Amino acid sequence: MTVAAAAPFREILPRNMLPLGFGSGALLSKRRTRREALKLLEAAMDCGVTYFDTARMYGAGRAEGILGELAARKRERLVLASKAGIVPQSHALHVRAMGRSIRLLHNVAPSSKNYLPVPSNYLPRFGAFGLVEFRKSVETSLKELRTDYLDILLLHECSAADVEETDLIRLLDDLKREGKVRAIGIATGIEETVSILQRHAALFDVVQIPNAIWNMNVRKVPATNRLVITHSSLTSRFKILLDRLLSDERMAAEWRSLTQVDPRDSTELAHLLLAHALNANPNGIVIFFSSNPSNVVANVRSVSSRAIDEKQIAGLNALLARKHVAEFLDASFRDLSF
């Protein structure tokens, strides 16, 4: 399985490129060291992943630097996509001062922990599309990623109003002309994406949206020859689905019958959902993440070997069309953004 890239991307995306991208939004955590995070990236690359997605804000501004360690050694093997528009502010003084005060209160009145949590020092700032700030963000990304250019630059959580700023559009053109960016796109919610494309479709080469079986946002994107990238087919919501299948024998039996996959096996279920996401976006890229190197390899091998076939995907589509399944998904995920 490879990406069937439209003409504008044939120079950017390698021929026979695997249509899987590895995301770094959750690359760093309190339980994962920098070295462990790098090993995840290396595991993805070593088993065939070419496309790596990151952003200036990820990991409080540190994720790009870890990916940069890999890019410094293997830049020619990587397609790098980053985002600008959200600025990491990991050292907000007023937040740290507030945190110290709340910790003191917790010592004096322990019950206050139940209703007054310590705020995070990391407060990202959205809407950072001012010309000076935006260019600085891109230049910082290039420095952290240890590269002279980004294959793709995405406007992070932008609105239709943001992209109507002619000075910003001129800056994007300048970055392309300077060779610092090869393609420009948007990475935002489905409603804003549709709104932007209805008014400014010609401005962008790439669209990145959340997509999963409970929303199928990819079907809402207007038909186009631009590159469509989806993410969030496997998220924390996956556990909600798995828990339901573990507790509901009838639904589990339906899944097993129609998809020939044991829905109570988290690995098999993940492979099914990933294959479904790729099938729904046949000429694009699907971003995934796993915190376990062995799961990274297993996911990639599942896609490369076509472990899930068209009949199984058709079975899942038939299942999703059943009223009680649709009602469960709607009730479980209605209020979630992706």
UniProtKB/TrEMBL annotation:
<protein>
    <submittedName>
        <fullName>Predicted oxidoreductase</fullName>
    </submittedName>
</protein>
<dbReference type="InterPro" id="IPR023210">
    <property type="entry name" value="NADP_OxRdtase_dom"/>
</dbReference>
<dbReference type="Pfam" id="PF00248">
    <property type="entry name" value="Aldo_ket_red"/>
</dbReference>
<dbReference type="InterPro" id="IPR053135">
    <property type="entry name" value="AKR2_Oxidoreductase"/>
</dbReference>
<dbReference type="InterPro" id="IPR036812">
    <property type="entry name" value="NAD(P)_OxRdtase_dom_sf"/>
</dbReference>
<feature type="domain" description="NADP-dependent oxidoreductase">
    <location>
        <begin position="19"/>
        <end position="319"/>
    </location>
</feature>
